[in-house]
Amino acid sequence: MSVIQFFVGSLRAFSILSVLAALAFFILSRSIYRLYFHPLTHIPGPLLPKLTSLWLHYHAYVGDEASAIHRLHLKYGPIVRVSPREVDISDADAIGPIYISKGGFPKAPCYANFDIDGHSTIFSTISHEYRAVRAKAVTPMFSTKAIRDNVDAIYGCVVRYVDRLKEEAATKRPVNVLNLSRSLAVDVVSTHLFQENYNGTSERGTLSASAFVDAFVAVGRFFYLPTMVFVWLEWAIEKLQSDERTSESMGLVDKFVGNLVEKTSPKSMTYPGRMKAAGLDDSEIRAQCKDLIFAGTDSTGMNLATILRSLVLHPEKYARLRSEITANAALGPDAVDVQALPYLSAVVKEGLRISMANPTRLPHVVPHGGWSLDHTYFPPGTIVGCSAYELHMNPHVFPDPRSFKPERWLESRDEMSKHWFAFGAGPRACIARNLATLELQWATEKVVESDVLKGARATQHEIEILEWFNSKVKDEKIELVWN
């Protein structure tokens, strides 16, 4: 070996060692800063989340984020640091400032990971101004009056759902009520908001839109990633793990939405028509409609399937509800006022509480000036949030919280309402909450009135879910079987 070669080799080795040393110094100094000098040093929590966000990314990916953070709350209290600059709060007093007062804190940047086809949606945008134009155009469609005016069409979807459930029950084979309830949900969304029924309840086998919905649910695995990282990761997954079932489902939904938007006039009072009248282009309107199909199908489908399974598991509660329904003259779509059937209202509310359709945090960013809660200061830029899992499973507010007990809502306390978080809170709460609530009420009432659940039993000992932003049932089934 020549002297020059030896010198070049030594220089390369020195360069690599220098880079490694610089990297080690950077990691060490950053770790010391995050542990001892960071503005969130006073927030309790375990060592690893203080040092790196990888702890949070890992638990979000494997689907036990809410459970893992719950264990931290049991150990450290109501305020816990879950990443170097993120804090989870289980105190319901935080809901007002974070989500309600003066419009709430801004949404965290990671919501952009739920953009669709390059467009921010009413849900995913972090801009109040961007959302305001779009929400103003379509919010009237979600009013109780608008739903009441279209009650015959919506209730027609419910009737077809119950007929299909009866048909499936008669086969004596296990019936996936999660799939059927998703079918109803997509039918209600499309019928009321698009004036064109997707007609999912007529499909045999798995709902054609399910793989489309599941693909968007899976985005929740990577919810907290920086958007640039998320975009590249999503591209890689699409290239390496694409499957025919998902591609076909995506294509069917794209075709349904594309045809709908193309033939819709700006004078139409439908969801896409109102958006056209507001000046949005067709590409964005398609994205907004797809977002609506995803959100309405997934969450409400999960809610209704949970309610049906809970009634089957608790025959005494089913009998009580059936007695109330059969004794009340205001059945069906005439029972628009939830108070007309108080136990039905309680069953639906309890189902929403325990279903965990959206179990994890809704992260928002502390604005300039900082914020204090119960003598704890959060500097500007801190990402804070509350979760339905933590609020709904609080044993001091909901004794025996994992049990289905509709009776608790018949004489509900203020503290229970304060911890109610099924649709979020404030101006950024679920825009379709009125539609979803009435759909659940009417579907539950009609199912029980028909007595189709008589003789049914649950096939699964428990339902395991992946605790992503939108939960995913691990085997995609909530099954009932009839004797």
Automatic annotation (TrEMBL):
CDD domains: CYP58-like. GO terms for molecular function: heme binding; iron ion binding; monooxygenase activity; oxidoreductase activity, acting on paired donors, with incorporation or reduction of molecular oxygen. Coiled coil: none annotated. InterPro entries: Cyt_P450, Cyt_P450_CS, Cyt_P450_E_grp-I, Cyt_P450_sf, Cytochrome_P450_monoxygenase. It comes from Clohesyomyces aquaticus. Its cofactor is heme. Heme binds at residue 430. Keywords: Heme, Iron, Membrane, Metal-binding, Monooxygenase, Oxidoreductase, Transmembrane, Transmembrane helix. The chain crosses the membrane at residues 6-28. It holds the Pfam family p450. The lineage of its organism: Eukaryota, Fungi, Dikarya, Ascomycota, Pezizomycotina. This is Cytochrome P450. Belongs to the cytochrome P450 family.
